[in-house]
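The methods section describes the discrete structure representation at length, but only in general terms. An entry of this sort, consisting of the sequence and the corresponding backbone structure tokens, reads as follows:
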Amino acid sequence: MAKPLVFQYGDRELPFQISKVERSKLYGYKELEVLDGKGRECELATLAGDGQTLVGRGGTAIAYVSTDGMWCERGKLKPVDLEGREITPVPSSFNAPTDLAAKTTIEDYLDHDILYVYQLMTEEDIADLLDELKQGEIFKFTFSYRGGLEPYVAFMLMAADGNVFMTVGTRVQLEFIGFQQAGVVAAEEEAEDDEQDAMDFGMI
């Protein structure tokens, strides 16, 4: 069994197993199989820059090089922000309990672009937590599956069928421009074409 995701709810630690809700599980999926003239399965290959050499699967890789063109070990690289300040990576959410203290509104939830959906399952008695979720409460917290530079924003909420889900995403960055919309001026040639194509209903 996979390592559970533990939530700190009041003075209790509640372990949950998570199951990713994938589109393929809901709607099925298709696989494209490409065969040659003799019915043999084809494999994807990459055409090299010389226009002649074919590189098969596993024959290419990504390398890190410095500005001087020297090879860099990935473990020696340090992430920095736009100002050059070092970024401290965040740990995986599976390493320590996640606090379920902050709640949010449906308006705030809808301001996020949801990228992943997980169903939460537990054998613990969570009647008190379920009561809050049934009343429409939405818990908000940070989440990182494997750890990384920045955590995602996550929510715990209940669906209409009573199942508990965790949704993971990022806040949508919207920029307000103004009330007036700039008009589009059509070219003179296009305007003339429109006049010629227009139907004169007075002729009917």
Notes: Helices lie at 23-27, 106-110, 127-134, 188-197. DSSP finds four helices and twelve strands in the chain.
